[in-house]
Amino acid sequence: MSTTRIIGLLRKYNCLRTGLIIFVFFVFAAHKCDAARSYKIVIMPFRDYTKMSMEEMVPDVLRSLFMQSGYFEPVDREIIYETVSTEILSNMVKLEDVTKGAGGAWTTDKVDLMARLDTKTVKEFGRQLKADYVLKGNISLIGSTMRIDAELVGVKARKTLGSIAVEGSPEGLSSGILKELSYKITDFCRNLNAYDDALSILSLYNQGQYTFDVSEKKLKEILSVTNDAVGIRASLMVLYLSKIRKEENVLLEDKVIEEGLKILMHLDQNFDENILNVFSTSGIDPFDETARILSKRGDSEKAIEVYRKAISVYPMNIAGHYKELGLLYLNNGSEDKAIDAFGKSLATNRGNYEVNFALVSIFEKRDQPDKVRKHLEECIRYARNIEEIKYAKERLDGMDDQ
């Protein structure tokens, strides 16, 4: 493609900016993101090394694309430019150079000046506008290939979060290059914010602002762009368990089992603290719930397997998991294994009344009075109410009468 042809195309796109923005409304619709919240983004003028006056056209199209995605809330161009001239400290840029030209329009030289602001300056700029992100970049032409380099700056993080580059034919500027750039930036941010977004979705569901179906759809959409992130699977599992607590649902129980087993498998290979954050925030013990569903269905062996695996890879409620494991062993007639599991539960939480009383029953059956007495005394010490104290004391007094 000749240089003359490329220049002609670039000028054509610059003249048809409004048409491009209308066009991208349609091409981006299929990539619409269902986040729990939108993120405020400032898009600076891009530095244009092609000298084809594209400093504003590229940001304008990106603003439209981001707006249609539903994930970002782009700051209006005029607000950005006005803020540059009033909020940025004078030692960062010559304010007299950032003014409107004849007729109130921003001149190319002034826009170019803004495009050349460094990362430190745009971070302060983003803070002034109370944005989550600032996007800056440049446009270049290498032979017949157009390249756009973008730098995403995190305002709260106070650093560059990532750099993204796209290349392509100038003929595909809106439907190709800019569309690809907007996808990459959106997906990059979605991965960064995935767990916060997931927790927000669960919170809105619990508040009644989202229905179950909407919440599931949003979480699955996040899962699809985070490469099957296990923390998002954990959020889905919490959603299913929250629904089950309100009404029994066999199909959701199947989903809980499926997600629970997948998460356990992942934890066995690579521990992820995001799982702890999701489950601890919800107050739900997912693996206890999974095992209980399996036990209710008569699959005690699988339930035992879940508890054993959870104990080895999930550092929460270990005493409770050992207790439930002991009860399953006891129901299966495996008393020795039950005693071992109960002992490990008490090693973590000595004051569990139910575990101590289970051991009382086992040792009574085995005619081991010393152990019976020991655990009855523990029952009295750690009883939760008067009735429990009274019952354990009567049992202990009965031993003394023999």
Automatic annotation (TrEMBL):
Pfam families per UniProt: TPR_8
Keyword annotations of the record: TPR repeat, Transferase
PROSITE patterns in UniProt: TPR
InterPro entries, per the entry: TPR-like_helical_dom_sf (IPR011990), TPR_rpt (IPR019734)
TPR repeats: 284-317, 319-352
GO molecular function, one term: transferase activity
Source taxon at top rank: Bacteria
Keyword Disulfide bond assigned: no
Protein name as catalogued: O-linked GlcNAc transferase
Species the sequence originates in: Candidatus Scalindua brodae
